[in-house]
Design brief:
- This protein has helices spanning 5-13, 27-39, 53-61, 89-100, 102-113, 116-134; strands spanning 19-22, 46-49, 73-75, 87-88.
- Strands 2-1-3-4 form a 4-stranded mixed β-sheet, covered by helices on one side.
- It is of the alpha+beta class and 153 residues long.
- The chain is globular, with a radius of gyration of 15 Å.
- The chain has one domain (5-135).
- Helix 4 (89-100) packs antiparallel against helix 5 (102-113).
- Helices cover 48% and strands 8% of the residues.
Length: 153
């Protein structure tokens, strides 16, 4: 993977651990990230907007679309970004919930019971209408300043 200078600082800070790439302009997506921040008391999960340089570099390196933000991407081990090790859509949701463990892990097991085709059909439907229902994200301060360190950029 070629790392440009704008990505290098983020990559050095987050050399390992799970990272969730999300649509940084989506109101629903940002609300979900804030919920995940609240329930992840151990600070295991990190985040990066799909529009940001770290996520864009990952998308390019793995042959994923760089302008289609309808799908979240879960990278189980950021330290091993090469080799196409990632999960999309509901598989990514399940992966992120499993990474959190506890009640989120239980929810992941419940979601995993449903066939991925069904889950992803629902995911695509929500993705299609999320801007109409939740609008674009209006930037605001995080509830806890220390959460800012959990974002790649």
């Amino acid at each position: 993977m070629v790392v440009d200078s704008s990505m290098s600082a983020s990559l050095e800070r987050f050399s390992s651990g799970p990272v969730l790439l999300f649509d940084g302009e989506c109101g629903l997506c940002n609300r979900i990230v804030r919920i995940l921040l609240r329930i992840d008391r151990g600070g295991r999960l990190r985040f990066s907007p799909l529009q940001g340089p770290a996520a864009q570099g990952f998308l390019r390196a793995n042959g994923l679309p760089t302008e289609d933000f309808d799908s979240l991407v879960f990278v189980p081990e950021w330290g091993r970004r090469e080799g196409n090790v990632f999960l999309l859509r509901t598989d990514g949701v399940i992966g992120a919930l499993r990474a959190l463990g506890g009640a989120a892990g239980i929810l992941a097991r419940v979601l995993a019971v449903f066939p991925s085709g069904w889950r992803d059909a629902g995911y695509r439907w929500v993705a299609r209408y999320r801007y109409r229902i939740f609008g674009e994200w209006q930037a605001r301060a995080l509830a806890r300043p220390e959460w800012g360190a959990r974002f790649l950029e």
